[in-house]
Amino acid sequence: MPWVPRGLRNGVLTSRWPRHQDDYFDGFAAAIAVDPTGAAASDPRVAEAARACPTDAITATGDGVRLDRGRCILCGRCAEIAPEVFTIATGSAVAAVARDGLVVGRVAETDEALAAVRAELAQRVKRLRRSVHIRHVDAGSDGSDEWEVQALVNPVYDIHRLGIFFTASPRHADILLVTGIGTSGMRQPLRRTREAMPEPVVVIAAGTDATSGGLVGGGYTAGTGVGAVLDVDVWVPGSPASPFSLLHGILLALGRVPPPRDEGGTK
Amino acid sequence: MPNRSKTSFTAVDGWRASVVDNVSAGARFAGLYGVADDASCQLTALIATDDAYRALDVSVVPDPNGKLAYPSLSTHIKPAFWYERALHDLSGVVPIGHPRLDPLLLSLEAGSERPRPGRQAPPSSLRQSETAHGPVDVTGRGMFALSLGPVRSGVVESIEFLIESPGEDIPHLNIRPHFKHRGVAKKFEGKTPADAVLVAERVEGIASVAHALAFSHAIERIAGVEPPPRARLLRVVYAELERMANHLDVAMRLSDAAGLAVATARFAWHKETTLRLTSRMCGSRFGRGVVVPGGVSAAPQLSASAIASEITSLRARTRADAVLAMRTPSFLDRLRGTGRLDPDYAQLWGLVGPLGRASGSGDDLRWSRPTDAYAELRLPTRPAGEEEGDVLARLRVRWSEIETSVDLILAALGRLEADTSAVLAAPIDLSGAIGFGLGWSEGAQGEMVHAVALEDGLIQRCFARSASFHNLVAFHDAFPADVFTDFAFIEASFGLGYAGVAM
What value of ipTM does the predicted structure carry? Predict the structure, then answer.
C-alpha cells in the first residue's frame, strides 16, 4: 500500500480554525469595507464609484454611503476610485443571518429584530448538535461556487473534523446549501429538495449569485437569488464565496462561531 | 473597421454550401449563432482553418408565414447538432431537417417569445415550460430510464443525464443542461467592454481567465491594440495556473471515483495550493478581475521569485503523486479502455482540448494560434497528444500539460523579473465604435472562442463559445463498452464545466 506513507508525508495540513486563528482566513480579501467618515456622500468620487459599480451595490444618499455585500462581486473598482471610503477588507467572516446584515456603511438599527432572528435560528438548530449533514444544490451557478463548496472536504479545511458532512440524500440533510442565481429551470427541483428534507432545516445562500443574482442574474430566467424561492437563514457573500467564508456561514447558522479573540478582523 | 476574417453571403444556400465545403475540405466547425434583428436573424458559422478562424454570415428573413428557417447543417456537419438546437432555443430559427430539434438550453411553451440575443430590448413575455419528462429512445425487455440529475449526489453542477439502460450497459443517454440556463448571452448586451469582461468571467467560473482572455482578445482585435509585454507574460501565468487547477481537479475526481482516499486528498490539496497561490497574487482564487481588455489590471501582489519557488515545490509534489497514481493497478484498471472515443470520431466531431488531444486531434491554440506571450515563450515541439482516446489517455494528456504549464509559468516569471516597465495595459478607446472581432484562448477545457459585435462602443452581441459546450455532446457516445460504474470516470475525464454549456 504505497499510498499510506504518502498520506503521512507532509504531516497535518488541516486548518485549526475556528479554535485557532488561520492566516488564510484572516488574510483573504472577502469583502469591501465602507468608511462613512472618509468622504461625504455628495463627494463626486463616491458618486463615480457608485456609477462604476457593475452590480449597483453602492448607494450614496443624504444619510450616507452604503454598500450591499450581497450584490458586490469584489471587482474592486470602488476602492480604486474612492479609496478613502471603500477599502478591500480582509477576513473571511462575512456571512450574515439577515439579508440587511450584508449592507455595510450605516449604523445598525435593527439590533432587536436581529436578536430575534438569531434566537429563533438558535432554537431551531439546537437539536442538530455535533452531527450535521449538508445537501448542496446548484441553482444556476457559474461553476466556481461548486469548487469552493467541494473544497470544504479537502484535507486543508476538512469539514468532517467539525462533525459536518455532505450527504447525497435530502432525507438525511439538516442544511440546504444553495449556490447559483436561482434560475427558473431550477425552481422546481430546488423546492422539491427542500420539501424532501426533515425539519428542522437551515437554508444557506452561498455566494453573491445566490444572494442577489449578482452580475448575471435578473435576466429572462429570473435568477435574483434563491431568496425568491426559499426562506434563507444565512447569507454568505462572495463571488464565489471562499471555502472559509462558507465554513464561517455554516458555523454561524449552527451558532458555533467563537466570539472574536481580539479587535481587528472585519467590520 | 474592416475585418478580413468575416465573409458575408446574400443567399442562405450559398452560405450553407460554403460552410459545408469548408468542413469537408478539412476545416473544423467551431460554432454557429444568431444575431437577431427586428424580424430577421443573422446566422454566423465559425470555421477554424489551420491557423485562423473565419466567420461566415448570412441573414435569414421570415418566410410568408413569419417563420425563420433554413436548411439544417447537422445533416452534413455532425458538430452543428447542438449549435442548431441552441440557435433554435435562443433565436427561434428552425433548422429544417435537423435530426432532433428538442430543447437544449431553454424549454419554452409553444408560441412563447424567444430571448433573441442581439436585439437589445429584453424579451417581454417569455414563458418557460415545466420540464417535461425526458424523451425515451430505446425500447426492449427490461429497459428503464433513469434521470441522473439535475439534483444528484455530491457537490456538482445541476445537469440532467437521462440514462436508458437494461441495468448495466448504457446504450443511450440524453443530456439536458437547460435547468441551469442563466441567459448569459443577453447579459453581455449593452455593456461596455470593461463591464462585459466581468460577464465573460462568469460564463464558466472554473475557466474565468480563459474566457476573460478570449473576450479581451476579441476587443483588442477590434481596437487594433496589442497588450504591453508585461501584461502578455502575466496573462500566461494566470492562464496556466488555471489550467493546473482544472487538471488537478480531474485527477482528484478520478481518484475519488476509484476510491483512492489518499490520492483524492493529495490532489485536492495540490489544487487548493494552486487556488491559494492565485488568490495571493491577485485577491481572487479564480483569477477574476485580472484580465481586462488591453492588458491586466494590476501587478501580482507576490514577487516573481516567490511565485516561482511556490510553483516549483508544487510541481515536485504533484509529479511524485502522479507517478504513484500511474503505478497503482487498482486505479489504472478503471481508466484503461474506459470511455473510448476513437480518432475518427474525434475528427468528425471536431473535439477540442485535452479530450480531442487524447484522441489524436492535436489542435492546441497555444501552438496553432498563439496569443499573448505564447509565441515568445519556448513550448515543447508539439502539444501533448495520445491516440487511445480512453480515460487513461486523457489523464496522460493532463499530466503532460501540467508539466508544460509549470515550464511556461517559470519561463514567463523569468522574463517578468527582467522586465521593469510599469505599463500593464494598453489604453483602449472604443466609445462610439462599431466593429466585429473574434478572440480565442486555450483553456483547460479546450478552445474558447468569443465572437463580439460592437455598436456605439457597447456590446451588441457576444457569442461566448466554451469548449465545454463543444465537447459535451461527445458524452452521448462515450459509453461504447462501458457500464454504469464507469460513468463517474468518464464524466470526470471530460473535465468540463456545465455552466459553460447551459450558459
Answer: 0.93
